[in-house]
Amino acid sequence: MPLIIKIRFDMEYSQLKLANKAWWDERSIIHGESPFYKISELVSGSSALGDFEHEEFVIGDAESLLHLQCHIGTDTISWARRGVQVTGLDFSESALIQAQRIAESCGVEVSWVAADVYDAPLVLRDTYDIVYSGKGALPWLDDLDTWGKVVSKLLKPGGRLYLVEFHPISWILGDGEWAIVHDYFSSGQPHIESEVQGSYAASDAVTTFNTTAEWQHTLAEVISAVAGAGLVIEWFHEFPFTYFQQSPILEVNDEGVYEVPEQYARIPLMYSLCARKPFAHSSTRVM
Ligand SMILES: C[S@@+](CC[C@H](N)C(=O)[O-])C[C@H]1O[C@@H](n2cnc3c(N)ncnc32)[C@H](O)[C@@H]1O
Question: What's the gap in Å between 152 CA and the centre of ligand 1?
């Protein structure tokens, strides 16, 4: 069957994407030096992946892994150390320059590809045993149904999607009290920020490009995008911890993991999901 591609020509999205790309291009240079990313520990051999990622996702006999939205490659390099051939994709060339520099310091080989996630099947023209999408990737995408179809197209039959994300419940909290402040249900409209300098990894950095557009995706949207693309969900996990100070009340433990203190009610702060592309997959069209 021919690959049918819907050309995404959507003025609003392209403009927002340009703003996001400028934001990431500038932040990637800063993140390459930021203690948040623990580059020297990575170079010394430690892994940037969470302990739970090592425990719950078995590579098995998989030979190839594609990391979508790989940023400066810290997670990507950590996957490569586990013995698979790894490709990291990101639309920020600046992020990939940092990623290659860090990979060289680690003595790890990774292929880096600069492309929009939505264009990945066209640009890569390859399929993979594992497609990995890590913490903080999905909020930058406006259309999860298309993302799900892209993932399916990139997987070999029998291949697996491993998705790790901040829980959408965690985004409804305010910046102060442990209280619900933002809508859980998404309007489909982006949340646009234009005043904030720096980033989650470098809050004091002085920056020029400060406009971002992000989309809230409910758990139902994520699961429907994965299932709607013909992937079969094998497991879904929720976690009461996270990897950055999402709320001021969170306390960081010795392993650098942020948790809700005992006096507060706990909610899920992260989730992970594994879904497999069936062998007899009716050919997926990327629409
Ligand atoms: C929060 S980072 C991912 C972080 C990664 N899990 C890590 O901790 O290193 C999000 C990444 O998505 C990339 N990105 C955002 N929108 C994208 C798009 N449409 N296509 C490709 N990459 C995109 C950004 O350049 C950025 O590197």
Answer: 19
Within 10 angstroms of residue 125's Cβ, the number of other Cβ atoms is: 8
Q: Which residue is associated with the tokens 């392209």?
A: 14
Residue 137 sits at the vertex; the CA angle it makes with 133 and 140, to the nearest 5 degrees, is 145
Q: In sequence order, what E strands does the chain have?
A: 64-68, 85-90, 111-114, 128-133, 155-166, 191-193, 212-214, 232-239, 241-242, 251-252, 258-259, 270-276
Q: What is the mean pLDDT of the chain?
A: 92
Helix axis angle, 219-228 to 144-154, nearest 10°: 40
- pLDDT (mean) for 134-144: 97
Rounded CA-CA distance 150/160 in Å is 13
Q: Which atom of ligand 1 lies nearest, measured to the CA of 70?
A: 5
Using the predicted structure, report yes or no on whether residue 89 has a pLDDT greater than 90.
yes
Q: Point out the ligand 1 atom lying closest to the alpha carbon of residue 92.
A: 25
- Ligand 1 centroid to Cα of residue 69, in Å, is 4
Residues 247-269, mean pLDDT to the nearest whole number: 93
For ligand 1, whether the C-beta of 19 sits within 6 Å is no
Laid out side by side, the sheet with 251-252 consists of 241-242, 258-259, 251-252
Does the pTM exceed 0.90?
yes
Eight-class DSSP state of 138 = G
pLDDT of residue 116: 97
Q: Is the CB of 31 under 6 A from ligand 1?
A: no
Task: Write out pLDDT tens, residues 183-210.
Answer: 999 888 999 998 889 998 898 999 999 9
Fold of 11-276: Rossmann fold (3.40.50)
- Which residue, by CA, sits nearest to atom 19 of ligand 1? 116
Burial class (CB in 10 A: 0-12, 13-18, 19+), 79: buried
